[in-house]
User: Fold this.
Amino acid sequence: MVDDILLRKLADKTHMDQWTRLINSVDASQFQIYPSMVFVPEDVTDVINICQYAYGKETPLTPRGGGTGLLGQALTKGIVVDISKHLNRIIETDENHVVVEPGVVKAVLDKELKKKGKFLPPDPSSSNFCTIGGMIANNSSGAHTLQYGSTIDFVEELDVVYSDGSKSTIGSSIELDQRCTSLLPIVLTKLGLIAASFPDTSKNSSGFRLDALIRNGSYFPQRVFAAAEGTLGIITKAKLRTVDIPQFVTLLVCVFFNLVGLLQSVPKILSFRPSAVELLSFGHLSSDMGQHIEKGLTDLPTIYVELCGESMARLEQQVDRCRSALKQRCISIELLSDTTSCNAAWKERRNSLNHILRVSDGNKKAIGIIEDTVVKPSLLEEYIPFVQGIYDKYKLDYVMYGHIGNGNIHTRPLINVQSVQGERVLEHLAGEVFLKVKELNGSISAEHGDGLARSRYIGEMFGVDTYRLFVQVKKIFDKKNIMNPGKKCCLLSKTI
Ligand SMILES: Cc1cc2nc3c(=O)[nH]c(=O)nc-3n(C[C@H](O)[C@H](O)[C@H](O)COP(=O)(O)OP(=O)(O)OC[C@H]3O[C@@H](n4cnc5c(N)ncnc54)[C@H](O)[C@@H]3O)c2cc1C
Assistant:
């Protein structure tokens, strides 16, 4: 009764029409789920109220930002809470920080920070649409994560609303709330297990990031929300660290004779401490599909190597050394240093996925399941030919590109998942590739997350004991399993 009075109070922010539900039934994944309603909060009090309502009714609640998630993270048959419409202010900036509401779009924030010579380095290709809340919840990253780190490395403080409607501010120098207090001993008593079961990679968005909570004897509870996909609480405010925009930047466009030479060169390139090393799209496509994306595909294996610094003279020396080290293996190395050329080159790289997502041949589409694996860069020589071998085995066309400097490869097979056979192939392919990723101590997701597509693999990837820890974490923060159920780990029988 109280719940229904509450809902009536929130009626003008609640949408149950077919059109709004349709828009919110999809994201950038291959899934579609209609929510029962879409709630558009105007302030934190609205967020608290809708949480209290959902808690009372035991209805699933899923926060949503730009809806650009690639694995169905923001989809639910319960209530979608659209954070992007109103909770999108940049609240304040100081020398090294910015405080924002979670619905602010990354590109809007970039523009504002640029005026002060600052930036927030994680740079997803979807920056024109994705929100800071979504970036934190997926622990997003991008080309410049190689030098600077992923979103998790920039989150200093968070305001969150938990599923029961209680509100908390979380940070390493803030008094711990009851949930973050309960989390601490779980992590402290299992540091060995966590170290042994987490991937040995420079980025990871799979599972809960228990490996990042204790550093140099300090506890960073806010980091448990990074990569949590809205399963622990709704972020309503974030304080993020910002850094100076580098003074001088040079981009080398290196075209290699072959992929083997490219992969063998990665560890050497990394010794020059580049700010980004990116693989441009290549693939194997039958002629029909090739026409669709040939514009966005390279014929020969090509990478971007970006070097940056505060001294032009030192940067030039570094560029020369890097060029000499690569020239034997490259057909050409083009040097770009003016802003217009660099921006044009980066635009091409940023559009890789946009282009690929549009490819279809009848019911065959570029499907994301193994599209975000990461291994140590020195292992790519073994890993990439392995994946190509699996594609050959199942006679699949594919595309491949990504953040090769981090060992993070974005690759998608073209499969008809409407057919039983296509679904079966995808299942086998994922099983075989993920097993290899585990053997190489990598992760099934470097930056895109687990969502609907990959959450079921988490137990196998981390092992049963660590999966139990994840379940404990979920119980601490959301014991009734209200917040985005079915993502990350499963509690009770409730799904999505
Ligand atoms: C063309 C394209 C290119 C992309 N390139 C990249 C890339 O380079 N790097 C990369 O990392 N990703 C990339 N992505 C994936 C995606 O854009 C990012 O993960 C992005 O950060 C998601 O943000 P969003 O606002 O769209 O989140 P949504 O999709 O709306 O939500 C993602 C998750 O965040 C949760 N969430 C949203 N807001 C909140 C909140 N306030 N509190 C708690 N949880 C919340 C949702 O519940 C959901 O689980 C790309 C996607 C596309 C379509």
